[in-house]
Specification:
Number of helices: 5
Radius of gyration: 13 Å
Structural class: mainly alpha
Helix content: 40-55%
Order of helices and strands: EHHHHHE
Strand content: under 5%
Number of strands: 2
Length: 98
């Protein structure tokens, strides 16, 4: 699983940046406004975690630990974030579906 359009929005290569870009476009994104508060918080945290591996997210168990959530809560949130996520064969991380 990878953050959709990561290379378009983040220009860092071969390092863990201390910050990520957050574009104003999110202000006019209806999908963003329709997210519940927890899912929107998880999305921002996923952007930060993905910055450590060129946009890739770790497997669901590791991601759940990093988010300090249960694995089920993590998967439920990620299912709400399909607008911002995509499968990517280059990423070794596939979410375990329950």
């Amino acid at each position: 699983m990878k953050i959709k359009n990561w290379s378009k929005f983040q220009h860092f290569k071969d390092r863990k940046p201390p910050w990520v870009k957050l574009y104003r476009d999110v202000l006019d994104d209806m999908e963003w406004y329709e997210l519940d508060p927890l899912a929107s918080k998880v999305l921002v945290m996923c952007w930060l975690i993905a910055s450590e591996d060129d946009g890739c997210l770790p497997n669901s168990k590791t991601l759940a630990f990093r988010l300090r959530m249960t694995e089920k809560q993590t998967i439920d949130c990620l299912n709400k974030l399909s607008h911002w996520l995509e499968q990517d064969a280059r990423c070794s991380c596939l979410l375990v579906q329950h």
